[in-house]
Amino acid sequence: MLRTFVGKITRGFALFVPRRTTLSYFGEDKREVATLVPDDVKEGYFAVLAIKGEEPKRFIVELEYLTNPAFMGLLDQAREEYGFRQKGALAVPCLPQELQKILDA
């Protein structure tokens, strides 16, 4: 199950990393969405939001953290809490300090 989750995440990121812009147009009865990959998210990285606490904090994380057991635990929590339908930056249910500790280790 964990391997499937990592595979889906990796495939999903592969769709976003090489591209710099994605545009979907929708008319009056549809919504208009324009998604830009920010310049600080370079190839081999992805954006993560730590959303618990007073204010969410955004992190730019290397893809290799997808094999880190502590980070994988956060992804499991995100899957349980939010499912696979997140758009934009990946949101994880932890305090920014907790995610920083994982990234610094």
How are the elements arranged and paired?
Blueprint: H1 2-16, E1 21-24, E2 33-36, E3 45-50, E4 57-62, H2 69-82, E5 90-92, H3 96-104
Parallel strand pairs: 3-5
Antiparallel strand pairs: 1-2, 3-4
Notes on the protein architecture:
- The chain has 105 residues and is of the alpha+beta class.
- It has one domain.
- It has 3 helices and 5 strands; from the N terminus they run H-E-E-E-E-H-E-H.
- The strands form 2 sheets. It has a 3-stranded mixed sheet. Strands 1-2 form a two-stranded antiparallel sheet.
- About 18% of the residues have low confidence.
Major beta-sheet overview: 3 strands, mixed
Total number of helices: 3
Helix content: 25-40%
Main structural class: alpha+beta
Strand order of the largest sheet: 4-3-5
So what's the overall shape? globular
Tell me what portion of residues adopts beta-strand conformation: 15-25%
Distance between the termini: 25 Å
How big is the Rg? 15 Å
Family: Belongs to the ARG7 family.
Organism: Senna tora
Pfam family, one: Auxin_inducible
Protein name: Auxin-induced protein 6B
